[in-house]
Amino acid sequence: MxxxxxxxxxxxxxxxxLAFLLYYGDRIHVVLxxxxxxLFDNVYVRLAKIAVLLLVMxxxxxxxxxxxxxxxxxxxxxxNLATLLVPTALLLVFxxxxxxxxxxxxxxxxxLASHIWFxxxxxxxxxxxxxxxxxxxxxxxxxxxxxxxxxSGHGLKRAEERYGNVLGEKLGNQYITYNLGISGxxxxxxxxxxxxxxxxxxxxxxxxxxxxxxxVAHDHGLVPASFEPYSDVPRVFQSxxxxxxxxxxxxxxxxxxxxxPFDTYARTAYGTPAIINDHLSDLAKFVTYAKEHKARxxxxxxxxxxxxxxxxxxxxxxxxxxxxxxxxxxxxxxxMGDIEPKDRVVGxxxxxxxxxxxxRVGEALFKLVQSNPGMGHMTSDSSRxxx
Length: 387
What we know:
The structure is a single chain. The chain has helices at about 1-25, 45-70, 75-100, 110-120, 150, 165-170, 185-195, 215-220, 235-245, 245-250, 260-270, 275-290, 310-315, 315-325, 340-345, 355-370; strands at about 140-145, 175-180, 205-210, 295-300, 330, 345, 350-355. It is of the alpha/beta class. It folds into 2 domains: about 1-100; about 125-380, 3-Layer(aba) Sandwich (Rossmann fold). The strands form 2 sheets. Strands 2-1-3-4-5 form a 5-stranded parallel sheet, with helices on both faces. The radius of gyration is 27 Å and the shape is elongated. The N and C termini lie far apart (about 85 Å).
């Protein structure tokens, strides 16, 4: 009997070491690397965690069996505790394994469930872009759609549901559309990616969102008050909520933080002349780029879906800037007013535009392209960018 306890104890030590490497290897600079780590989960890593958890449970059951069930004189207190704790541990591990396969999109892509979602629905990809390789480009007009997570289709299970894809489908076979959307982008790195992409567009679409001003505001010392994830959990339990798929999922089903601080921040950022002028200078680069390449230029502006009015108020300087430069602006908020708030977004934890909103935006953008030639058809006398 004693030898069985010793052998189980040794196996548990080895399993504990493996579990530490899988869950906390980063603390000793051991990282399981794979493409897009930090955005995607990896099913093989999850399977390895499942194997270790099941092996640990097998050893605990073995200890319980020989220490309590087969022991003619088990310690009463220890026996009662083991009888309670071992089945509970088995149940929790079973539920944990189930949640290792539950996907849910989430606003900032912070959750374990969102990492599973990205692994399951995001591919195929070309480099960092959620797109497919293009082979039929000869003789076709080029459409570039540049933006952030709204353009890349955060929360949409099918890339075909994105407004850019809807536009491309409606434009027909004589056009080819590239989606240059990456989550977390701002105006500056969107422009850098556009230039780096290196293809001359016939039609250029820039998607705008009110947080695009953040990096400029940061340069001026204005930083939004942000919620630190898991800071509302006692420190001793924070690691469990970060690493456990079950606890992580439950944690993010409840609201954390609020919108009020960002509202104050946005009003300050858009209302500070030095900040908004620098931001408009960044946007002016797109106007100049379109003129230099004789591209028809359009802007799509997505709002905060839960408060369309505030978005309209924030971005007035941006809309006015583009209008002064004869750039057509499609304000997506005006297409969403009759849609229930819950149907405007992709999910309860994700405020990105739903497939329904994307369909409306794509259709409206197509009509705008058809009816408005855009600034690419302006004469050279109108080439100066107005700030």
